[in-house]
Structure formats: C-alpha cells, structure tokens
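The passage that follows is intended for readers who have already worked through the single-chain material. We present the inputs for a multi-component assembly, then the predicted structure in tokenized form, and finally a short commentary. You are encouraged to pause after the input and sketch how you expect the pieces to fit together before reading on.
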Amino acid sequence: MRTAPDVLFKSLADPTRRALFERLSRDGEQTVRMLTDHSGVSQPAVSKHLGVLKHAGLVRARHRGRQTHYSAQPRALAPLVDWMSYYSRFWHDRFDRLEDLLKRMDP
Amino acid sequence: MSTTRSLVIEKELPHPPAKIWRALTEGTLIKEWMMDNDFQPVVGHKFSFRSTPMPNWNGVVDCEVLVVEPYKKLAYSWGSLGGESAVVWTLVATEGGTLVRMEQSGFRPDQDANYKGANYGWQRFIGGLERVVAALP
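Having made your guess, compare it with the prediction:
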C-alpha cells in the first residue's frame, strides 16, 4: 500500500530529515555514523529521524555486521508528486474561474 | 515534473487589490469561483468548503482561518482526505492591477514555529525533488 501524502508531509516537515533524505538521494547508501558526522545532531537523534523516514517508506535499512546501511527510496515520493499535480490542476482551474468572476463584478 | 512548481501560482490581474480581496473573502463570491462555504474573514474561524461528493472524496474541505490582513494577505488551513496543508494568498498592488500569489504547502503555519524557515526549505526541497523524480527509471 502506498503511503498517504500526510505521512510523507509529516516525515519531510523536519529540516533535518529532509537533509538526511537529500543526502542519501545524492550520495547513495550510508551508515548512521557517516550520516551523523555531517548532520550536526547526535547519533541517537539521527537514528530516530531515520526511523521516521523508514516508516514513511522513504529510506530502506540494510543490516551488515554491526552496521546498518541506509539508502533513499525516491519512489516513495510518488503520492506526493500525485498530490502536487492534482492541486496544480485544481488551482489553475480556480484561478481561471476567479478571473471570470472579477470581470463580471462591479469595478 | 514541471507541475510541482505550480503549487505556487502567481499572476498579475487587471483589478485593484480591494476588488480581489472581496472575491477572496465574501462567501457568495467565493462560492462562484471556489466552492460553497461558510467562510468569514476572522482569524480562528473554522469553516468548510463543500462541493459535490465523488467516489473517493466526500467533497468537504475543513479549514481554519489563520491570517487576515485586509487587501494584503489571507491564509487558511486546508484539511481534506485526511491530509492537512495550508493555503496562503498574497496581494501586491501593481501599476496595472494586482499581483496575486497563491501558495499551498504541506504545513500548518500555526503548528510550526519555524514555519518561514521550514517553508523556505520545503520550496527548495520541491525543486530538488524534481531532479530526484526525473532520474527515476
């Protein structure tokens, strides 16, 4: 089942989580320690953020030995892309109607 | 993915801000271009937009007025299909009329103290998203 846009929004609402997701999208698979070194927050905090991203399906965890490697799952963004294209059409249509109304209104 | 940028719609309309403000804030006028509603331009007022129910949608958008700055700025939360977002209208007078800007984002401004910063980051993220999704096989 696909993740609801709301879950995606909540998981991406935090700037640290967006940064982690962007980094994994850009640089490929990373361990928690590698991610912590660049994040400016503690390792437990990074792990917690990764848990939220994982719940939203945005990252995948792969255990190798004592290390956990995380990778981005950009396909999980699909509902967000759908949400945006739906509202894009919706608002363009409403803007047209607003313009029509303004023409009909008294000055 | 060019559509993602249009979550911000900006357009100059040949009408004064006061007239556009009326279209955005008077219930009977809102109904003509948006949906049936019980909107009132009062911060904290809870209202809903109602349109014809569809198979996967009851036709209701639950909202709360967040910002009312007459002729300048109007914002309301937008709850629909279990999703929560915010719609912000900004009007800027120009020589020929008004620059109308509508922005819908996935945040409720009243729930996020860092809304401005977070929103900036969000817009940047949306830009990056286009590249990520474009690279998908």
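Commentary: Chain A has one domain: 5-104. The first helix of chain A runs from residue 5 to 12. How closely did your sketch match?
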